[in-house]
Amino acid sequence: MTSDNFHEIFSDSVLQELFPASRANDFFEALYGDVDEGAYDISLTFDNYDKAGNTLHFNLNLTERPGKCLACHLTFGLPEVFSRHPVINIAGMVEKVDELLGEKATCGDWHLAPTQTTSRKLYSVPLIISLS
């Protein structure tokens, strides 16, 4: 398969189904007990397919909310928190990616890479899924 094929599979609407916008509020409700404490919204994007490594690359994009400070709320351990948190549910999302791929490929191991700074108001936590 080519990267273009995967971009077709992982359209914006499919990505929103995999990781609905409301999940950020659910996360902050579970974490802080109040959605208004959340400093960022979380969205899922598809980055690319690495044919050499046979891996899919997604990003969990963190976008600063108005009147909040994104940098103040990010920690080194955010990927670890996201990987375990039941509201974020990365494992469940990877299962759904596996279903979407059908006979084309099978998802294997996955991991979240360290948080990356795209701009002062946008950070990303890369999600990397190995395929077989």
Brief summary of the model shown:
This protein is of the alpha+beta class and 132 residues long. It has helices at residues 3-9, 12-18, 22-32, 70-73, 78-84, 90-101, and strands spanning 40-50, 55-64, 107-112, 116-119, 122-131. Strands 1, 2, 3, 4 and 5 form a 5-stranded antiparallel β-sheet that branches.
Q: Describe the biggest sheet?
A: 5 strands, antiparallel
The number of strands is 5
In total, the number of domains comes to 1
Helical content band: 25-40%
Q: How large a portion of the residues is in β-strands, by DSSP E?
A: 25-35%
Element order: H for helix, E for strand: HHHEEHHHEEE
Derived structural class = alpha+beta
- Could you list the spans in which at least 5 consecutive residues all have pLDDT below 50? none
Please, what is the average pLDDT?
90
Given the structure, what is the number of helices?
Answer: 6
Tertiary shape: globular
Gyration radius, to the nearest Å?
A: 15 Å
Quaternary structure of the protein: single chain
The N- to C-terminal Cα distance equals: 12 Å
